[in-house]
Automatic annotation (TrEMBL):
The lineage of its organism: Eukaryota, Metazoa, Chordata, Craniata, Vertebrata. GO terms for cellular component: extracellular space. One of its GO terms (biological process) is immune response. Residues 1-20 form the signal peptide. Belongs to the IL-6 superfamily. Heterodimer with IL12B; disulfide-linked. The heterodimer is known as interleukin IL-12. This is Interleukin-12 subunit alpha. The gene is il12a. Pfam families: IL12 (PF03039). Coiled coil: none annotated. InterPro entries: 4_helix_cytokine-like_core, IL-12_alpha. The keyword Acetylation does not apply. It comes from Gouania willdenowi.
Length: 192
């Protein structure tokens, strides 16, 4: 049974996280490591023959957030990067987009694991560590947002694996972006 105090503390954590404010300095080191772990995990997941077995497509599916733009570094005078924005870096906006991405991929993996799988035991063993890292990141510093449960997966395991393979390729790209953003915020360069 959850006590009133525990409920209040949880509410405080959720309310603080939902503002999208940056994590505290003590959590930065933990976040940097966890985001690095997430990137390594998703890279290894895509190198495994289990999820994308028999799928020849190299298409990518990503969430509909603005993480790439929101987390782009401050523009520099001599930069030739096309994707840099014209405005200054807003840390809370970057966090909000990262939070939305993590919530999206957490729900997508959770629902996928409940669908008809080709190799349930192997796919679960492959994807659960990714979910665990995502959930640890969300508990450390990020927004706990409940996504609406749209029907993402059907009864065809091949179609589901095809979608999940594309989703994980997109997540790999997004994990690279998140990792760079976390390192940028952790360095403090955006405050100069």
């Amino acid at each position: 049974m959850v006590s009133l105090t525990d409920s209040f503390l949880l509410l405080c954590v959720i309310l603080r996280a939902s503002t999208g404010f940056p994590v505290s300095a003590k959590d930065h080191e933990s976040c940097v490591k966890l985001f690095g772990d997430l990137l390594q995990n998703v890279t290894a997941l895509l190198e495994s023959p289990i999820l994308c077995f028999g799928i020849s497509s190299d298409k990518v599916a990503v969430s509909q957030t603005e993480t790439v733009h929101a987390c782009a570094p401050n523009p520099t005078q001599n930069s030739g990067c096309v994707s840099q924005r014209n405005s200054s870096f807003i840390e809370s906006e970057c966090w909000r987009n990262i939070n939305a991405d993590l919530a999206y991929y957490d729900i997508a993996i959770q629902l996928y694991l409940k669908s008809n799988l080709r190799s349930s035991q192997n796919e679960t063993a492959l994807l659960e560590p990714t979910r665990t890292i995502i959930q640890r990141l969300r508990k450390v510093s990020l927004l706990h947002k409940q996504e609406e449960g749209a029907k993402m997966w059907d009864s065809d395991s091949y179609n589901n694996r095809n979608k999940m393979c594309k989703l994980m390729r997109g997540f790999h790209l997004r994990a690279i972006t998140m990792n760079r953003a976390i390192c940028y915020m952790s360095s403090g360069d955006h405050r100069n």
